[in-house]
Amino acid sequence: MLDTAFFRRWLTLAAAAVDREADRLTELDSAIGDADHGSNLKRGFAAVTAALEKEPPATPGTVLTLAGRQLISSVGGASGPLYGTLLRRTGKALGEAAEVTPGELAEALRTGVAAVAQLGGAAAGDKTMLDALEPAVAALTDSADSFAAAATAAEEGAVATVPLQARKGRASYLGERSIGHQDPGATSSALLIAALARAAEQPTGPATEGTAS
Ligand code: ADP
Ligand code: MG
Question: What homologous superfamily does CATH list for 2-205?
Answer without folding.
Answer: DhaL domain (1.25.40.340)
